[in-house]
């Protein structure tokens, strides 16, 4: 078990900032998404599935869906 997991299991509060939202879901009890310094979404880890987390992140960051090049 990772050191962070051991601290979590011991009831310690841990604040982590990362761009890896899927790793955050593995470690955290709650996952928040920030945009321009503001918390725009927060969920308990068990409240959403892996795909839901990606959808929330992309929606809140207003990331356009990938488009295939017309040039080939």
From TrEMBL:
InterPro entries: P-loop_NTPase
Protein name: ABC transporter ATP-binding protein
């Amino acid at each position: 078990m990772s050191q962070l997991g051991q601290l979590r299991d011991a009831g310690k509060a841990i604040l982590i900032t990362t761009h890896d939202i899927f790793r955050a879901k593995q470690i955290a009890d709650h996952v928040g998404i920030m945009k321009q310094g503001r918390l725009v979404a927060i969920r308990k880890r068990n409240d959403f599935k892996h795909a839901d987390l990606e959808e929330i992140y992309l929606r809140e960051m207003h990331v356009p869906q990938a488009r295939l090049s017309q040039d080939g």
